[in-house]
Amino acid sequence: MKKSDRTIYINGRFLTQRITGVQRYGLEILKKLISLNNFKYEILIPKEKEITKSIKNISIRRIGLFGGHLWEQVELPLFLSNKKNFILLNLSNTSPICVKNKISTLHDLAFYHHPEWFSKIFASFYNFLIPRILRTSQKIITDSNYAKEDIQKTYNVDKDKIVVAYPSVSDKFYNLENTKKDFFLTVGSLDPRKNLNRIIKIFEELNINLKVVGGANLNFSGKVDKDKKKFIEFTGYLNDEELLKEYNSAVAFIFPSYFEGFGMPIIEAQKCGLPVISSNKTSMPEVGGSSCIYFDPHNDQEIKTKIKKIYNDKVLRTELKKKGFENVKKFSWHKSTLIIEDMLRNL
After folding, report:
1. How far is CA 206 from the centre of its chain?
2. Quick one: pLDDT at residue 117?
3. Are residues 116 and 235 in the same domain?
């Protein structure tokens, strides 16, 4: 295939942030795009910021004087104002409003449906920003059919403008066949949508160990109850190598979230050989299919029953482990990257 002479600028602001699900999505797609080598790519990042993960075989340009949204909404558009024959590819949740030649990514609308989960400043800003990004983008990438339908209905966006490109799992996560220790694992930011206070209380009542992996985020309101507990361990934020060890040590994985655009930890856990029990809300049944046991995240008794069921039934855990390995095969960074490349080629 002939290499396009159009320049694809990458909004690299997400590369300067701590790696969570949103940043991991952008990072993996970017690495695959570079490896396919069908376009000329250049990453643009704030001048004084450091990249959290190394990117090989691509030009990186530092521009502007500031960082954050000021850089994204003012300095990035100023840099692009005299450029021709380009597309700005935004692989995180925001993009500059006044750049027209752009593809934007939006993972979910939690800020719209549940502003109470977020700081007032964050919720207000996103409710101002996102509708304008959707209107001024040529295409929107999202990561599940649930999220696509939600964006379409909430903001009256043409369905053909929204393209689903599923996440997959980083090669850094895999099954080690370790001896399992006697604990459940959950992974996610310490924020209200993750439903952590409820399951912390439940695991304490059940006398079953739970390890909670994830850091706090100032964009969210509310606090997780981290007072000393007998059966709960908080690890804080872990890097990929540390997280791999935890995925391969737990007896099972629980994902109790109220709201997700995708829910990447479900398939990360499955790739590492963990049986999964999950919330049945929003995108999670789409992600897990028939490979998970589901529960209503508002129903304490149902959650307790499902936890005890998987904890006490080794045959069931083995069955879910096998189903999980098969489920993960449905998701491919390569397939999703080809979808995004096709968009770039046809704009």
Report:
1. 30
2. 92
3. no
Residue 283: give the domain boundaries: 184-328
User: Has this prediction a pTM greater than 0.90?
Assistant: yes
* 208: number of Cβ within 10 Å: 18
Q: For residue 214, how far is the Cα from the chain centroid?
A: 13
Residue ranges of the chain whose pLDDT lies below 50: none
Burial 28-56 (b: 16+ CB within 10 A, else e): bbbbbbbeeebbebebbbbeebeeeeebe
Does residue 261 sit in the same domain as residue 217?
Answer: yes
Note whether 152 and 124 are same-domain residues: yes
Q: Which tens digits make up the pLDDT trace of 169-198? A: 999 999 998 778 999 999 998 889 999 999
For residue 285, the number of C-alpha atoms closer than 13 Å in the C-beta half-sphere is 8
CA 57/CA 317 separation, integer angstroms:
42
274 and 310: one domain?
A: yes
pLDDT in tens, 35-74: 999 999 999 999 877 786 678 888 899 999 999 999 999 9
Three-class SS state of 215:
coil
Give the up-direction half-sphere exposure of residue 238: CA atoms within 13 A in the CB hemisphere.
17
Residue 177 falls within a domain, yes or no? no
Report the C-alpha gap between 297 and 15 in whole angstroms: 32
Question: Per the domain annotation, does 145 fall within a domain?
Answer: yes
The pLDDT of residue 1 is 59
Phi (first) and psi of residue 95, to 5 degrees: -160, 165
CA–CA distance, 185 with 170 (Å, rounded to integer)? 19
Tens of pLDDT, residue by residue over 196-232, are 999 999 999 999 999 999 987 655 555 666 676 899 9
